[in-house]
Design goal:
24 helices; 4 domains; 19% strand; Transferase(Phosphotransferase), domain 1; 9-stranded mixed β-sheet; 6-stranded antiparallel β-sheet; D-Maltodextrin-Binding Protein, domain 2; 34% helix; alpha+beta
């Protein structure tokens, strides 16, 4: 079975270009059952690139950059939205930034970090913040139709603004970004032959034609028709070789480089206009002449007449497009094996702001299908939705919030309804809505609940609301997207009294039940606890009246049968359910069991959440103490309030059998508001995750407490 998974992973991952492959590898590495297979595939998926020269030269090393530039080497890690990076070596300066070799700590793949400085001697504080914000929004771009295609441009894996210093930005790219520029190649190898120049120019023009003609989307949700390079020179074209074939990659686009040039006004257009197109073509002509002439501009050279004509036409506005110029050039040279070839398109429904989760989920679906059909080797149920790591600190740091009034929906008396009712989340008397309004005062957001899950989806589809928040229990229609912002789970609870613990159900059951035993209890096949080695107590059944909890209960415990067909099961609000369970035990000597959302019973001590197990697997206790140990029947829950919480790790990988994601649902339609995406971004900040955790939900990962600044004297 393991071989089948290995074959599927190898075939699927090799279809994507390296930057996408790195992100997918990191994404899939979160699943424990895939880690061994991924490690075996690592050398094959990420071979050491042949003949890639380091960008650092004797001159750049001898320059001894300042401590401000090299300070990045002293950092333990750089935290991004899609990974964590450890910087290891300084490589040199290129364009408006400085290059460093680094490691993606998740995939162990070498990457490049380009550091940009916004120091006070060059930018005011306001200018620095504005440029940081713009950099984050524009540095990441992709094809608007979702295709993943290597068009020989060094695309950022991610763009990170350093919120601590407010003076640094980091662009993360593939290790290939450390390849020598054409200028370095000329210094080391000398001038190129005419045939080599034709090949290089053909590739550059093909890439420019692709950039100029395609539609691109940005992290803000904006769509742009075409993109100019705007910064083309010998320094922004990289020379790479693979299996004796030369490939040139374009780097350092105006799209992000412009924000770190104090002499340039930020926000210059990158959309193709006749003037900007000609600027790119003129630069190609300059590059061609330099490759033939070398770096000595006074040198006299003879150029083949037809090639000379193409170079002159590039610089004298005789070509109206890169495509026209390339067609003329190809009359001199046959098509190159380095042609841009289309790559497979992912159609997965769930995404983050980039294509990573879309591709990852389609790959996961393929693997999970094969796994389920061929064996039971996998030990845990794998979650269908995952999310990028949390990185941004604060709600207020999220920029480009759409203007206007927005509405969103969820199920009345459901999980998000419960979240919005909670008070004293981080500050006294402050609820979720107040905290969000304080951080984003211009955001006008109204929650308009509806009665059922079906109505929620109908509201999103009909554009009656901008997005929705609800548990994702099944695949969405193709016209909708889902992104996880937190987790929740159903808890199977029984009465807990620390003083009477030796007589109670938690001790008798050793703190656990199998999911099958829970199912048998609620189906009425077990009506006495003795049948499963419990005490001599009658069974009484309760379930939360939360509509979303009922939907999960019907799906996961009743095997999709309706609750109404089970007359012995009583519905109560979660708080009343907890009270009734303890009263039944203390007043009536009845061993009641209840099913309720963990978010709604966490923090009380009248009931005990049992550890649950799937067939043949260890029971998973979702609640852990502050030392990381799971609670057990000997734990005094009343005496340790505030010292225990839900364990994010057991929810993120789906180990806990009754866990499920809380997702933001929004339309897959660029004509609609991007508020759903922005709400995801807000919720995935560290501050947003703290709010969700305080409201009872399980965060996407371990959430650090806020750093309190010392009082100014």
């Amino acid at each position: 079975m393991k071989n089948v998974v290995e074959i599927l992973l190898r075939a699927s991952l090799r279809r994507y270009p390296l930057p996408t492959r790195i992100s997918l590898f990191s994404y899939l590495g979160r699943y424990a059952w895939l880690k061994d297979v991924l490690e075996e595939l690592r050398p094959e998926l990420f071979p050491v690139p042949p003949k890639v020269r380091e960008i650092a030269t004797t001159e750049t090393i001898a320059a001894k950059p300042s401590a401000t530039i090299l300070g990045i080497l002293d950092r333990s890690e750089i935290y991004g939205r899609f990974g964590r990076y450890k910087v290891e070596t300084y490589l040199g300066q290129r364009g408006n930034g400085h290059l460093f070799g680094a490691i993606d700590l998740a995939s162990k793949r070498p990457v490049t970090v380009k550091e940009f400085l916004l120091t006070p001697d060059r930018f005011t504080k306001t200018e620095a913040l504005q440029r940081q914000s713009a950099f984050q929004q524009l540095a990441g771009f992709q094809l608007a139709d979702g295709r993943s295609q290597d068009f020989r441009v060094m695309q950022p894996i991610e763009a990170i603004a350093d919120s601590e210093t407010q003076e640094l930005c980091f662009l993360i790219t593939d290790k290939q970004d450390q390849s020598p520029s054409l200028r370095q190649y000329l210094k080391e190898q000398g001038v190129l032959s005419s045939s080599q120049v034709r090949e290089v120019l053909s590739q550059i023009l093909q890439t420019l034609d692709f950039l100029h003609q395609q539609k691109f989307s940005f992290s803000t949700g904006a769509i742009q028709n075409g993109l100019v390079h705007g910064n083309l020179s010998l320094d922004s074209v990289l020379w790479t070789e693979h299996q004796s074939q030369v490939f040139v990659y374009l780097c350092d686009l105006r799209l992000w480089e412009q924000y770190f040039d104090p002499a340039a006004l930020p926000g210059r257009s990158t959309q193709p206009t006749p003037d900007l197109l000609q600027h790119d073509l003129d630069a190609v002509g300059d590059i061609g002449i330099s490759l033939l002439q070398g770096l000595d501009r006074d040198a006299t050279i003879e150029i083949e007449p037809h090639l000379a004509q193409v170079l002159e036409s590039l610089q004298t506005v005789k070509f109206d497009s890169a495509e026209t110029a390339r067609r003329q050039l190809l009359k001199l040279v046959p098509p190159s094996p380095a042609e841009i070839a289309p790559l497979p398109v992912s159609t997965t429904q769930s995404q983050p702001s980039r294509t990573l989760p879309l591709l990852g989920l389609s790959l996961l679906a393929l693997l999970i299908g094969a796994w389920a059909l061929l064996s039971q080797w996998r030990s845990t149920e794998v979650r269908s939705i995952s999310s990028p790591p949390v990185s941004t600190c604060c709600l207020a740091e999220v920029s480009a919030i759409p203007t206007g009034s927005f509405t969103y929906t969820g199920v009345k008396n459901g999980t998000w309804w419960f979240v919005l009712q909670q008070r004293n989340l981080v500050q006294r008397e402050q609820g979720f809505t107040e905290a969000l309004a304080l951080a984003q005062p211009k955001l006008q957001l109204e929650f308009v609940p509806v009665a059922t899950l079906d109505q929620v989806l109908a509201q999103v589809r009909s554009a009656a609301v901008d997005f929705a928040v609800l548990p994702l229990l099944e695949d969405l229609p193709k016209d909708m997207m889902a992104e996880t912002i937190a987790y929740d789970g159903l808890a199977a609870v029984v009465a807990f009294s620390y003083a009477e613990r030796q007589k109670g159900l938690p001790t008798a059951l050793k703190g656990k039940l199998s999911l099958n035993q829970v199912r048998q209890l609620y189906e009425g096949r077990i009506d006495q606890w003795q049948a499963i080695n419990g005490p001599e107590l009658e069974v009484r059944l309760y379930v939360s009246s939360n509509p979303e909890a009922i939907a999960v209960f019907e799906q996961k415990i009743l095997d999709s049968r309706k609750l109404q067909t089970f007359a012995s099961i009583q519905q109560k609000s979660s708080i009343n359910l907890s009270r009734q369970v303890i009263r039944d035990f203390e007043d009536k000597d009845i061993g009641s069991i209840g099913i309720a959302p963990l978010s709604e019973i966490l923090g009380q001590c009248s009931v005990y959440p049992l550890a649950l197990s799937l067939a043949g697997q260890a029971a998973i206790q979702p609640i852990i103490l502050s030392n990381g140990q799971a609670i057990d029947p000997e734990t005094d829950l009343c005496n340790r309030k505030g010292a225990y919480t839900a364990d994010p790790d057991r929810f993120q990988v789906g180990n806990y059998p009754l866990s499920y994601p809380i997702s933001v649902i929004y339309p897959r339609d660029n004509r609609r508001s991007a508020m759903g995406k922005k709400f995801v971004e807000l919720m995935r900040t560290m501050e947003g995750q703290r709010l969700l955790k305080a409201a009872g939900l399980v965060p996407l990962g371990q959430v650090k407490p806020p750093i309190l600044k010392p009082t100014q004297r």
